[in-house]
Amino acid sequence: MSTPDDAPQPQQPGSQPPQPGNVPPAGYQPPQPGNAPPAGYQPPQPGNAPPAGYQPPQPGNAPPSGYPGQQGYQPPPGYQQQGQPAYGPPAGPNPAPPAGLGYAAPPRNVFGLDNRIAYRFRDTTGVPQPMVVSYWLWIAAAVLGVLASIVNIFQLRDIFGGLMVGAGVASLVLSLLIAAVYMFMAIRLKEGSRWARLVLTILGVLAAFSLLFQLITLNFSLIGSAAAVAAAVMMWLPESQKHFV
Q1: Cβ partners under 8 Å of residue 22, min gap 6
Q2: How far apart are CA 203 and CA 181, in angstroms?
Q3: What is the rounded distance in angstroms from the CA atom of residue 244 to the CA atom of residue 230?
Q4: 189, part of any domain
């Protein structure tokens, strides 16, 4: 006697009856319409399989902001990639003072006023000879300018009496200030400061105009002006130029 389960099931249109060699294994489920792969799906190929241990990137494993390769990334100081120059400020003129001085001179681009002026005043170790001559000529111009102002006070008193003594004293005070500027700028010139040489060049040009007037009037100050002009010329000689490289 047959049961309902033994009754033959109607075949679907277009289906093929199972063949003896193609019987599906136990538990096999035919593909359902809702589980069909999407259009264009390609099963993984043996050559495209990921390597063993591969983990796909997770949201929590994203590289932090500033990771190399991102736009706007700046490497840390001292970082250097292979085959590339080290990061850092571009090379420029050396701001250090010239080598050879017997003391630690300030850098070229600073004012350099400190409590070692007396020692810096007398030390010319390692300075080229034309620069040494220029340096002492500036010192001489400063001293001669003060002496000329003192002499002028007595000359004005003898010629005009006590009326012009006040003007002579004012001229002496001004010459003392100019002498201080000459001496300090000459010290920085000896130490290789380019800006000090520029200032002294301007003062040398002014001294040249003063010398022309003093030659006409035969003023005693012409000696100091002549020393300043000679000092300005000496500091621009070719051998002196090496002191500022």
Answers
A1: none
A2: 10
A3: 19
A4: yes
Domain assignment present for residue 88? The answer is no
Our measurement of the distance from residue 154's CA atom to the centroid of its chain's CA atoms, rounded to an integer in Å, reads 54
Q: How many domains does the chain have?
A: 1
Would you put residue 88 in left (φ > 0), alpha (ψ -120 to 50) or beta?
A: left
Residue 116 · residue 210 · CB < 8 Å: no
CA distances from 79 to 73, 85, 88, 89, 133 (A): 12, 9, 9, 13, 48
Amino acid letter, 8: P
Assess if residue 89 is contained within a domain: no
* pLDDT > 90 in the chain, percent: 35
User: Is 229 inside a domain boundary?
Assistant: yes
**Measured between alpha carbons, how far is 92 from 108 in angstroms, rounded to an integer?**
13
Task: Decide if 215 contacts 226 (C-beta within 8 A).
Answer: no
In order, the DSSP letters of the chain are ---GGGSPPPPPTT--PPPGGGPPPTT--PPPGGGPPPTT--PPPGGGPPPTT--PPPGGGPPPTT-TTSTT--PPTT---TTSPPPSSPP----SPPTT-SS-PPPTTS----TTHHHHHH--TT--HHHHHHHHHHHHHHHHHHHHHHHHHHHHHHHHGGGGHHHHHHHHHHHHHHHHHHHHHHHHHHTT-HHHHHHHHHHHHHHHHHHHHHHHHT-TTHHHHHHHHHHHHHTTSHHHHGGG-
Per-residue pLDDT tens digits for 132-185: 999 999 999 999 999 988 888 887 777 776 667 777 788 889 999 999 999 999
Residue-range definition of the domain harbouring residue 234: 131-244
